[in-house]
Every structure is written in structure tokens, then in C-alpha cells.
Fold these 2 entries.
Entry 1:
Amino acid sequence: MARSNGKADPEVVAICARHQASDGPLLPILHDVQAHHGYVSDEAIQQIAEELNLSRAEVFGVVTFYHDFHREPQPTHSLKVCRAEACQSVGGRDVWAAASTAAESGQGDVQLEAVYCLGNCACAPSVQMDGRTIGRMTAERVSTLFSAGNSAGVPS
Ligand code: FES
């Protein structure tokens, strides 16, 4: 099949071929493309549309409808900072401020997200880095998460 830019991504072709015969192949294809590339690019959208004989707008509409699909490369690490009451009452505001400052300065390869309770209220203030919940967080320690780029060495 012809490509608008003449370059077919072989991985996208293989993913489409793997799912093309199944019912409702678009979502599994998008998930696999994102799992492989980390996001769904404009080129991938075009290619998927061509492979499935859909319009680019149809594929784009699905990608933008679901929040879990990313249109750009995402940071390697995810940091969730609890902004709910139990954490806010024992220093969570300082943790959020320090994390926001680090994120805005471009420190580390970290995606910062506010969440409202991590189920770790007894050890507030709490954060979660790459799925690992860490309690009794401080502004200093959260800054370390950004500079280290991971939670290794930070006690839970
Ligand atoms: S309120 Fe922060 S972990 Fe529950």
C-alpha cells in the first residue's frame, strides 16, 4: 500500500497485519503502536488509516478521545503527588511546590501529576514514582526524585 510520505514504519505494518483480521482492530493496533513507540505519531495515524482503509480523521478521533493515548513522546518517569487533605495537612503543599518547581525547570525526565489520595494517608505526605508509593515525603526528598530520575535509594 502506498504511503503519503513514501516511508512505511515496518513495526506499524507488522502490528496492523497482526490485528487486521480481528473484529475491531483499531484499538489493539493503537495500544501496540504506543507500547512500541511510546506514543502515536501523525505518521502512525496516517499509516494505520491506510492499512485499515479508514480516514485519517477517524483514527485521529479515536486517538484523541482516549486519554491514555499520547500524541507526543512522554517522559520516562511518572511522579504522582497526593494533593488530598491528609497529605496537604502535613506538608503536602510544600512537596507539591517543590515538585512543581523541579518539573517547570525541566529537571529530570519526569511527568508530574496531581492525584487525590494514594491510599497511604497514614504515612502522609505521599507520592508515587513509577508505581512505587513513598510516604513521609518532604520537599527536599521530592527534589531528589527529580535529580536522580528514579526512586532508588528513597525509603518508602
Ligand atoms: S490523602 Fe494523600 S495518600 Fe491519602
Entry 2:
Amino acid sequence: MEIQHFAYSGKLSFREADGEIECVGCQDVINGPAYISEEDNFAMHKVCAEMPPQIQKDAFHPHPLKFKLIDVIVCDACSRLLFSYISYRCMYCDFNIDFRCAKAIINDENNIEKRDDEDLQRTRTLHFCHPHQLTRCKVSPMTEFGEDMIENIWEPNKLKCVACKWKLQDTQTFMCLPCKFIIHESCMNDLPMQVQSSLFHPHHILHPRPFFNAGGEVRCYACRKKVNGFSFYCNKCDVDLHVSCAKYRTRATKHSCHPHNLLQLGKSIIKGISCCACGRKNYNDSLFSCRKCDFNVHPKCIPLPSSFEHKRHLHSLALVSPFAEDDSEDYYCDMCETERNPEIHVYYCVECNYIAHIDCVLSEVRQPQ
Ligand SMILES: [Zn+2]
Ligand SMILES: [Zn+2]
Ligand SMILES: [Zn+2]
Ligand SMILES: [Zn+2]
Ligand SMILES: [Zn+2]
Ligand SMILES: [Zn+2]
Ligand SMILES: [Zn+2]
Ligand SMILES: [Zn+2]
């Protein structure tokens, strides 16, 4: 049995798959006989292949929805951002649904709720971080394949939050699809209207600067990496900083290896910066850094005791690399009881889960130099 499908130029035959293969429609694994191409790995479940090229379900949406091939969409039924080989798009308004939701609508499954204009309006918002309307969506659950496809289509933009630069899996976000602008909902709500005394540009107030399709490349003054979509900006000095770089907080320490104060910088800043002592660019490390002299060095590459007895603490303390001990968002130094940057090296006692700033520990061991 052979068929011609609207989403495929060749012929599909109904047969068992040779190995594990996914349906291009619902993206689930295929078990048993299905419509499979003889030429490439295009394959569809029987029920999926029987989906029509156009859907008209007035109870769900008042206009006809037509199939669209290979697209990144935010589904207006399930509010997920996803890569779809086949999705359905309204011929009259900005309304999209992914293949699975379309299937559920065709089958009248009642887990798909109709969304009227008011519902849709609730998922859209305006915010000072972007000049266009943002849509609330989730990047989840998604296969690695889907993630790679989106990043390929979005190149050079990445599937990362413009504010914190972290991945978006399974979190609520707001996005502008045409601009490939995406931000965690929590990061958006935490965005300040200005940043004062930023570590890397302390003397002027930094203001929000939304931009898109910017001509030329915008580089962050702190980490020297590209900035996409949004920055904190000093208009006196024409300086841009990532949100996370503008808000970066860390310790300054004095050490005999360098005449100036050294900042302890973690992985969100140091990517691509090499150590003056060993020459390596370790991503998951931290650096002591003097920005003025471009002097950067790993804590393990300068004379720091790696493990020793301490009079304030019973057990020996060991120098350990950045780690987060739990999911709580607050990190403290057990010695001075002030906040601690979870990206930088600390002294640690395994037995007591005692964690302290390097400089807090050293100041008690020897005279500061
Ligand atoms: Zn399927
Ligand atoms: Zn419509
Ligand atoms: Zn974020
Ligand atoms: Zn936009
Ligand atoms: Zn930066
Ligand atoms: Zn300035
Ligand atoms: Zn220096
Ligand atoms: Zn401390």
C-alpha cells in the first residue's frame, strides 16, 4: 500500500520500520507498521498521516488552519515553543498550533481548551526589555533534536535567556519569535530599571537598552562576549553589559602575585580568558583577575594553601572549585556570614558542610600582604 502525503514529495509505503524511527508528525517513536519512505527517514504513524492538510473546527478557532512545514512556533493551544516539521497556521490571524495539539483537536479530545481572544491576550505582554509584544511560553518538554533544530534555524541566536544566559528547559519564559528574543519570566520580573555601581563600570548609572537586528556586533564590556537583544548601557561611555554581567557581585582580594586588588570571577564571566600561569582556559573554574592589567590566574595556580588546619574551625579546610551545595538560591560564607558568589572557589569542610570565602579564611591565617 503506497500513498502520497502533502508534506512529502516522494511516495510512502505502509510497512514495518527497519530500526527505531520517529514520526515526523507527532514526534513519537513508531512501533509496528507505518507509512515510511524508501529514500530517507521520513515516516509517519497511520493516524498521523491521515491528518488533513487543513483544519476547520469552529469550536476551537473561527478560521481555517492550514499546514505549514518546518517552522519554529509557539503553539497557541499548549503554549510551548517548539520545532515542528508539520504545524498548522491560521490563514487570517497570528495563530499557530503544533501537530499533537492539532491531532487532539481533530479527535475532539477535551484536554484541549478553546482559547478566545481574551485568553490569548493574557499570554501576551509588553515590557521595557523589548520593543514588541512578548508571548508567554514554555520550552518544554523538548527533545535534544528539537533543540538543535531551533538553534540551527535561529543561528547565531541561541536558546538561552537574554538576561541570565542559562538554558530555558522546563521554565516559563516570554519571547518575541520574529526577533528570536527570549527571557525567563522570573528574570524579566527581576530586571531593574537601572544598575548602579556595577562592578565592571562603577562610576556611571547603567540603563536598559533593548535592541534587535542591531547592525554590527555588540560586545559585553565585562566578559567580551556577544550581547543579543538586551543590555545595560552607559550612554556617556558607549558601554554595553549583559544583564548578568552588569549585576555581577564578587569579592576583591589582595594577593602577593599582583600589585592590584584581584576580583574573583566565576564561569559566567571567564569563558575564553586564559590563565597567565598555566595558559589554560578552564570553563568550569574561577579566576583571580585584574581587569586593568588583563592579569588572570586560577586559584590553584598561585600560592594558596590547598588544605590546612584552621583555628576557627576544628577540621581541615580544603580549597574546592565552584559548586552549589543545594538548590537554595542563597549562598553564604559561614565565616563572615555575608553573601557568597556560588561561582568562585571557596574553602570547604566536608564533615560540617562548612564553606568560607578564600579571603575570610586567609585573613585569619596570615597577615594580608
Ligand atoms: Zn505520529
Ligand atoms: Zn484565526
Ligand atoms: Zn534567565
Ligand atoms: Zn521583537
Ligand atoms: Zn557579559
Ligand atoms: Zn560610563
Ligand atoms: Zn593589575
Ligand atoms: Zn566570608
